[in-house]
Automatic annotation (TrEMBL):
The keyword Cytoplasm does not apply. It comes from Caballeronia humi. Residues 3-58 form the HTH deoR-type domain. Coiled coil: none annotated. One of its GO terms (molecular function) is DNA-binding transcription factor activity. This is DeoR family transcriptional regulator.
Length: 251
């Protein structure tokens, strides 16, 4: 079997099963595990998959910068944001992560909502200027320009006195076994810290993030109490997540 044929077969298996194991692929292709690992390294370098111990997972395609992602509007993304916004009860303290879906969430909040929003995203803060009854607490720190959020020790320290009811988390990867992940190490630390300061974490997940993984792990899938997905997300992708005890909300 040619290298190109092996790589096509690997992608087909990833699409079907959500993961591949190097040992099983070596047996299937009749080649050494070293050969399979080389294929996986090359495919990972091309952004086609995410390598993990013993094999690989589908790679998240959600890696473009904020400006590019914001230009890609979709009905499904707005539906996810709207469903998330409806979870907020007046009087609550909620943490809103950065990201384009989170910006849509802010836009979906009723103008007369009375609540406190804590965010490390300047974009979210600006969206809420026109909400007279929403108290906005902005977490400072080093600005990570790719996602337009603050990160680092100063941002994490600023969270020390905050206890929120809900945290709306943005991710680039949601996978039943690999958990929640993102494409930047400091962002992963920040998201983990934000989740630790909320009673419940709600993950906003467009279809391209389900059954995918990025380089930096935020935590187990059970870090999320709820994951909001697009209405037409296949049950085959969400059933393993639901089996772990996470509530799936279809928007």
């Amino acid at each position: 079997m040619l290298t190109s044929q092996r790589k096509t077969a690997i992608l087909d298996t990833l699409s079907r099963d959500g993961q591949v194991l190097a040992k099983a692929l070596a047996e299937e292709f009749g080649v050494s595990e070293d050969t399979v690992r080389r294929d996986l390294r090359e495919m990972a370098a091309e952004g086609l998959l995410q390598r993990v111990h013993g094999g690989a997972l589908p790679a998240s395609p959600a890696t473009a910068d904020f400006a590019h992602r914001q230009s890609i509007e979709s009905v499904a993304k707005r539906a996810v944001a709207r469903a998330a916004a409806e979870m907020i009860v007046p009087g609550q303290v909620v943490i809103v992560d950065g990201g384009t879906t989170a910006v849509q969430l802010a836009r979906c909040l009723p103008r007369d909502l009375r609540a406190t929003v804590v965010t490390h995203s300047p974009s979210i803060a600006v969206e809420l200027v026109g909400h007279p009854s929403v108290e906005v607490v902005v977490i400072g720190g080093r600005l990570y320009k790719h996602s337009i959020v603050t990160v680092g020790a100063a941002a994490i320290e600023a969270l020390s006195h905050i206890r929120a009811d809900l945290f709306f988390m943005g991710v680039t990867g949601v996978h039943a076994s690999a958990g929640l992940s993102t494409g930047d190490l400091e962002e992963a630390y920040m998201k983990r810290a934000l989740a630790a300061h909320a009673a419940e974490t709600v993950v906003l997940a467009s279809a391209d993030k389900i059954n995918a993984a990025s380089q930096y792990r935020i935590g187990e899938i059970t870090m999320a109490s709820t994951i909001v997905v697009e209405r037409n997300t296949p049950a085959a992708l969400t059933d393993p997540i639901a089996a772990a005890g996470v509530t799936i909300v279809r928007a």
